[in-house]
């Protein structure tokens, strides 16, 4: 499993256990009820054919995380049986499918027992519970019948910054670079107080503007315990998942085609459309953001129809429970990749060639950088920073390619010439 795949698994595991390791303490009854709910639910587990998580597994993840409070503690361990065949043969698969279709309501453990009693499992093949579940799920043979209608009720979290909701609203066209371009409002709302931690119009709803707005919200209002978002590409980005998990923020996605859970942010957007946009008379992105900043200040001071308090007063009435953003907040928004430094001291990041310190040759290193600032690239090894690394001259970089072993080569240069070139830089 690659480093990026391990990171995705760790972020998923943190999303499962965040209620048990967050700031809110659960009594024994609440904890058992929450464990039972998570064990009964079907999950889309990254890089796994399973869809359920056992009680012991969840508790083991909690122990691992509370021992270090580092996301790396939730990384999956490398398998010691890689390379071995772990699939069923065709005859066993066909027999299992036919038996499941004949007895669709029979528990899987009983299916396995009948398969063995009837001699339907090929000699030398081990049909265990996990393998059978994975195979039946992959063939859509474990679908349950639809239950009664879902009981949906209004809710409100108990404290400020317990949960934020976020979404994107399509805005008007504004003048930018001499052209009319559509703008988008990226906003966050505190579920308890209805305060807007941050809202800003951008020319795009992609990952970079969303992360910019998220960073601004955190720096102004502290860290929420949960962030409730939609299923758009920006909300599903690995960068957002890693940033929230590293800051101890649970990232929760709304169920597809069920927008009711985002009612508060949708209601705020309706207010923006009916009260702010009709009064805006500017033409540029800067003007709409300046006007929106003033309007939000007025919104914060008005009594909210649901809470009967102003958002600002309700938010600040319980300041003791807020978590301040760390001093190095900006660093949590850097993209992180891992590389091995080549013999010529080179590392390649996003098709750009960089030069690492001599003492890191041959070592696995961690690279932290902002995609829009290629000149600010930090390199770390074994948890120690070795400062910023510099980009190689562009005319050399244009001739960079990799050989079949993944090593960097300079097109048109021999190995000896390439080494001399690096020494002269």
Attribute tags:
single chain; 425 residues; alpha+beta; Nucleotidyltransferase, domain 5; 4 domains; 5-stranded mixed β-sheet; 4-stranded antiparallel β-sheet; 13 helices; 36% helix; globular
Structure summary:
With 425 residues, this protein is of the alpha+beta class. The protein has 13 helices and 14 strands.
Tell me about this structure.
With 425 residues, this protein is α+β, with helices and mostly antiparallel strands. It has four domains: 3-74, no CATH class; 90-138, no CATH class; 164-321, Ribonuclease H-like superfamily/Ribonuclease H (Nucleotidyltransferase, domain 5); 334-423, no CATH class. Helices cover 36% and strands 19% of the residues. It has helices at 3-21, 28-40, 55-68, 90-102, 108-117, 129-138, 207-221, 238-246, 263-276, 285-301, 311-316, 394-397, 415-423; strands at 164-176, 179-190, 198-202, 226-229, 250-253, 335-340, 346-349, 352-355, 364-370, 373-381, 384-388, 390-391, 400-402, 408-410. The longest helix is centred in the first third of the chain and has 19 residues, at 3-21. The chain is globular. Mean pLDDT is 83; it is low at 81-85, 149-153 and 413-425.
